[in-house]
Amino acid sequence: MAKRCIKPPRFVEVLKADMTPSGKYVIEVDIEPSSIVCQDLYFKTFDVVVDEQAKKKKGGESFFIRDGSSSKQVDYDTYIANNPGLSQERKEAEEKHLSVVKVHAHGSALGAMITGGTHSMDRPNFTSYIVVANKSHPVQLDNLDFLPCMNLTAVLDFDPQSAENGLNKLIKERKMKINDHLPAQYTVTSTVKDTVCSLSLTKSTSWVFCNGGINGETPSDDDNWLTEKGHSVRHVVSFLCQSVLPRKEISCHILVTKSGEQSQRPLVSDLRYVSTGASGTKPNLVHQ
Q1: Which of 21, 177, 211, 269 has its CA 20 to 30 A from that of 27?
Q2: pTM summary value
Q3: Residue 118: is its pLDDT beyond 80?
Q4: For residue range 155-164, what is the model confidence (pLDDT) as tens digits?
Q5: Rounded Cα–Cα distance for residues 89 and 100 (Å)
Q6: For the chain, what is the largest distance between any 2 Cα atoms, rounded to a whole number of angstroms?
Q7: Which sequence spans correspond to the domains of the chain?
C-alpha cells in the first residue's frame, strides 16, 4: 500500500539570486493516499535511534496526522476512537474533488480561462503570447486549432515527439510560420540584438523544444531533465521576457494536456519559473 501511495522523489534544484545553479537540491516526496487503497487502515511510523556505544538501534512507534501544511504527533488509540468516520469523509472529499474537476473541464471554461472571460483573443492589453505545452493525445490536438490565430511569440514545447506527431506538426500543417529552436541557441555569444536577428524572434514564432527531439538532441528522462536541460530552459524564459518582449503586455498560457502517459514531471518541474520568471507577464494555467 505504501508503494502505491508514495510517489518517486523529485530533486528540485535550488537557484542562486542570479538564477544560476547552486549545486543544491530540495528532495520532494509526494504522498497521495487514496481511500480505495488505504480504506480504513492507519499506519504508524517507527523511530530509529542509533546508539553508537552499544552499536544497537532503539526505537518506538509514533502516529502523525496532517495539521495544515505540517504534521503533528497524536495518541493513536485516542485519535481513532474520536474519529470513527474518517474513511468515509476522505472518500466523500475525493468524490467531491473529482466532480469539480469534471465540471471545469468543459470547453467553455477552457475558452473563458484563455480569453479572460471576454471570449475573444483580440485583446488590446496584450501584444504577445507565450504558450507552454506538453505532450498531447491525438484527440486533443484537434481542439488546439485556435493557436495559429494567436500572435504567438514563442512556444515552449516539452514533447520530444512534437515535430513527428505532435503539436509542432499540427501547427506546421496549418501553414503557420514558425522557427524550430533548441534552448542552447538562445545563448548570447555576441550581442542580444544579433541573437534576436539570427533566431528571427521578432518575425515569426519561436518553437523551443525544451526536451530535445530535433537536430539530434536526445530527450532526457524524468530524473535527469532538471539537471540536463532545466537551466537552459530558464535562460530562454529570461532572454525572451527581459530582452525581447515588451513588459506588462505578455500573456503566458500553460496547456497541461493529458497524453495517456503518467509522467508530466519535466514540464511540471519548471512551471513555477515559466509562470513567475517573466516580470510583468500574466500566466494562465489551463489544464485539459
Answers
A1: 211
A2: 0.54
A3: no
A4: 999 999 899 8
A5: 17
A6: 75
A7: 120-287
